[in-house]
Design goal:
alpha/beta, Dihydrodipicolinate Reductase, domain 2, 12 helices, NADP, AGPR
């Protein structure tokens, strides 16, 4: 059994971790921390967990985190890097759902997250937790920086066209790497459980708006990941939007084809690249995936389109931002780190309607 602790168990990603880990056959939950809610039974805050999670929230200072095999951080940025040295010294592995171990450039981290990075030596060894790209490295890692929700959808959507093997087979780049566009929409749970005006019912309901148009902190993470996939620089325009639903991400990706790319069968390319991937479903040609088709599951669904008479490739990607975009991907990564079947505890079907 894997002894697991969760730091920051009161937010949406925290409760999603609890939902998934409570059903995992190889996990023993050791501790769930919250300074503010110390002593409160978890099931009192989240009645959906009654009968499945009998722990109470504990203060991080007294929680038996050093006795765990793995600790998840479902916390604000900056918390994981403050506690990582002590936990690693105790032999505990770490999966951070925040941004502390995502961006390899500490100056870039400081620019977007407005704090200095306190342990760049640990950042240097951290592995970016996107299994479809870094599966082998994840298996050997002590520290995982889990991708953000938007970056997961965008990177998986463009992975096949930037893969060096596909580029070599076509005799050159398939798409123009400097003009990529990611037009992405997310439900309000992506903003977290904290009280903010823009997520109030009267503000978010019956409304649809863009934000972060001139710059969003997921943009450098996406560019870093796509550049690592391609082996050369990639630039993009990333525009997120808030839509009046609770959970889900829909990414519409646009890329201009090169002469080499114009000759490629992209449906076949995507089907072959993701063949055998347990959580990526390449849909039949002409499909338009819906966010409800992945709700509460770890599945990503992708559809590829080439509009007639256009030199554009359009890729549609849907995921649940709290599952494959956060906690579910964390459990998938945990399974790899501990040599378990990758889909263990993650076979839940999407919820409809």
């Amino acid at each position: 059994m894997i002894k697991v602790g969760i730091v920051g168990g009161t937010g949406y990603t925290g409760v999603e971790l609890l939902r998934l880990l409570a059903q995992h056959p190889q996990v023993k939950l050791m501790a769930i921390t919250s300074r503010k809610e110390t002593g409160m039974p978890v099931a009192e805050m989240y009645p959906s967990l009654r009968g499945r999670v009998d722990l109470a929230f504990t203060d991080p200072a007294s929680a038996p985190l050093a006795e765990c095999d793995l600790v998840f951080f479902a916390t604000p940025h900056g918390v994981a890097m403050a506690q990582a040295p002590e936990l690693l010294a105790a032999g505990v592995k770490i999966i951070d759902l925040a941004a502390d171990f995502r961006l390899k450039d500490t100056a870039e981290f400081e620019r977007w997250y407005k704090m200095p990075h306190s342990c760049p030596h640990i950042l240097a060894e951290a592995v970016y937790g996107l299994p479809e790209v870094n599966r082998d490295a994840i298996r050997k890692a002590r520290v995982i920086g889990l991708p953000g929700c938007y970056p997961t959808s965008v990177q998986l959507g463009w992975l096949p066209v930037l893969d060096p093997k596909a580029v070599a087979a076509a005799g050159g780049d398939l798409v123009e790497r400097t003009t990529l566009i990611a037009d992405c929409k997310s439900g309000v749970s992506g903003a977290g459980r904290k009280a903010e005006v823009h997520t109030l019912l009267a503000e978010a309901s019956d409304n649809f708006k863009a934000y972060g148009v001139t710059g969003h902190r997921h943009a450098p993470e996406i560019a870093q990941g796509l550049g690592a996939i391609a082996g050369k620089p990639v630039s993009l325009q990333f525009t997120p939007h808030l839509v009046p639903m609770i959970r889900g991400i829909h990414a519409t990706l646009y890329a201009r084809l090169t002469p080499a790319g114009a000759r490629v069968d992209f449906q076949k390319l995507y089907e072959e690249r993701f063949a055998g991937e347990p959580f990526v479903d390449v849909m039949p040609a002409g499909s338009t995936p819906e966010t409800r088709s992945v709700r509460a599951s770890n599945m990503v669904r992708i559809a590829v389109h080439r509009p007639a008479g256009s030199d554009l490739l359009i890729v549609l990607v849907v995921e649940d931002n709290l599952v494959k975009g956060a906690s579910g991907q964390g459990v998938q990564v945990m399974n790899l780190m501990f040599g378990l079947p990758e889909d263990m505890g993650l076979t839940q079907l999407p919820v409809l309607p």
